[in-house]
Amino acid sequence: MDVQALYQPFSLKSLTLKNRIVMAPMTRSFSPNGIPTADVAAYYVRRAGEVGLIISEGTVIDRLASSNDPDVPHFHGQQSLEGWKRVIDQVHAAGGTMAPQIWHVGVMRPHASGWMPPAPFEGPSGLVVPGEKTGTEMTDRDIGDTIAAFGRAAGEAKRLGFDAVEIHGAHGYLIDQFLWAGMNKRTDGWGGATLPERSRFAVEVVKAVRAAVGEDTVVILRLSQWKQQDFAVKLAKTPEEMEAWLTPLAEAGVDIFHCSQRRFWQPEFEGSDLNFAGWAKKLTGKATITVGSVGLSGEFIAAFQGESSHPSSLDELLRRFERGDFDLVAVGRAILSDPQWPTKIREGHSEQLRDFTRDALATLY
Ligand SMILES: Cc1cc2nc3c(=O)[nH]c(=O)nc-3n(C[C@H](O)[C@H](O)[C@H](O)COP(=O)(O)O)c2cc1C
């Protein structure tokens, strides 16, 4: 199949991309004390030439317990923001386009090193997994401050010159903990039996981000049905539930839904082969990004456990793309292990594609 379809430009509001390939957000933990170093800038610059849009690793907002790792970059504080300014200026100079992924981890297990954030982990009900409380249940004030901190981070992104902003609402982190009935047991206005009720926190975050960046800057929201705590969870079990979930988020200001799956080819609901990004686009009319094992044989959680992946065909991806299921394609590990991946695909050099092995996680090349 013709990969050139992926190399057509994309334009939405003030965002113009040279092609449809997005570097997926990937935590690298190479920013000591939350400050992105020159090595972090060089890592993104190596990918800026051929990737349409770089989405940064998750970078945490201004809350004491927003991170569970001392080497994850902050998106607040003078030194961290100066580090990000160097990143975006160098990415632009190399011809790239970039959005930060703004993040709050919610209630997590402590980091392997034993490091703990300066305040207890916080979430809708303090649960680290359904049924196990290890963190703090957020008060109304905590919630309001957190929404405001997301807004401030988005405003900083715009001030520094980033081209768009992505909100991390996926994978069982804070925003997703509010969405998920297993983790959100609140009986006030931030919880509820239905997904639209539990979406209120996400909606308010989107509104705060939109208010901070204005109408013309693209806001991306990353969502997933699956959770790191439980791969089998599905927030929306039918297209109707998905529509009731996504429509208020679209109305609050999302321009692009970034629909995270571990394997992009898996259908979301019975009776159709559409994946999450396909349904999100069909139901909301918004642009979507698909992601999950593009160009690789194995999925990413297994990669953390040491499983290697081999290059695989893009035919199924292209079939769906050409059918109009999604607008953009995010690629994680293939671009992490090989900055030249988009060029090799475009030029048809499949014999030069590399396997993904766990070693790639340990360096910032
Ligand atoms: C090392 C690593 C770190 C990741 N960190 C993040 C992150 O910070 N935020 C996020 O939304 N997803 C994160 N992910 C998930 C990726 O964005 C992507 O969805 C996943 O790797 C599937 O894409 P792939 O199969 O092309 O690698 C991470 C993945 C990897 C491999």
TrEMBL record:
Transmembrane segments: none annotated. Pfam families: Oxidored_FMN (PF00724). Gene3D superfamilies: Aldolase class I. One of its GO terms (molecular function) is FMN binding. Residues 6-350 form the NADH:flavin oxidoreductase/NADH oxidase N-terminal domain. Coiled coil: none annotated. It comes from the Bacteria. GO terms for cellular component: cytosol. PANTHER family: NADH OXIDOREDUCTASE-RELATED, OXIDOREDUCTASE-RELATED. This is 12-oxophytodienoate reductase. It comes from Microvirga aerophila.
